[in-house]
Amino acid sequence: MLENMILISKYIVPKGYIGITLFPFVFLKYRHLKKNALLINHEKIHLRQQLELLIILFYLWYTIEFLIRLIRYRNWYLAYKNLAFEREAYLKEKDLNYLKIRPFWSFIKYL
Fold first, then answer.
1. Helices 56-73 + 84-92 axis angle, to 10
2. What range does the domain containing 59 cover?
3. What's the chain look like in SS3?
4. Total Cβ atoms within 10 A of residue 64
5. pLDDT in tens, 9-46
6. Based on the structure, what is the number of domains in the chain?
7. Which of 3, 18, 29, 95 has the largest count of CB atoms under 10 Å?
8. Is pLDDT of 1 > 70?
């Protein structure tokens, strides 16, 4: 099912990134990335996070946390990498079974 929701667009994916999840779609910069299991798992984790926070609350939380971290680190990349949502996704992307056992709201422990 997710395969139908993965779209290729080098225009939607921000410069410096290779994928972005905007529920219910995953946008990848290049077609060959569809075969990258770790990247797809990373984006699936974001889909779950978005669902847990009823989508709108996810984007609100993501934006506010990003702004707070940007003020703290004064560096776009460090702010992004230290977001709770991104920390969980990066730490768990190699575990392809993670979503089967992932507790509800588990991103909280990465704050």
1. 100
2. 2-110
3. CHHHHEEECCCCCCCCCCEEEECCEEEECCHHHHHCHHHHHHHHHHHHHHHHCCCHHHHHHHHHHHHHHHHHHCCHHHHHHCCHHHHHHHHHCCCCCHHHHCCCCHHHHHC
4. 10
5. 999 999 999 999 999 999 999 999 999 999 999 999 99
6. 1
7. 29
8. no
Q: What would the pLDDT profile of 60-90 be if each residue is shown by its tens digit?
A: 999 999 999 999 999 999 999 999 999 999 9
Residue 83 identity: L
Task: Tell me the backbone φ, ψ of residue 54, rounded to 5 degrees.
Answer: 55, 35
Length of the chain: 111
User: Model's pTM, two decimal places?
Assistant: 0.94
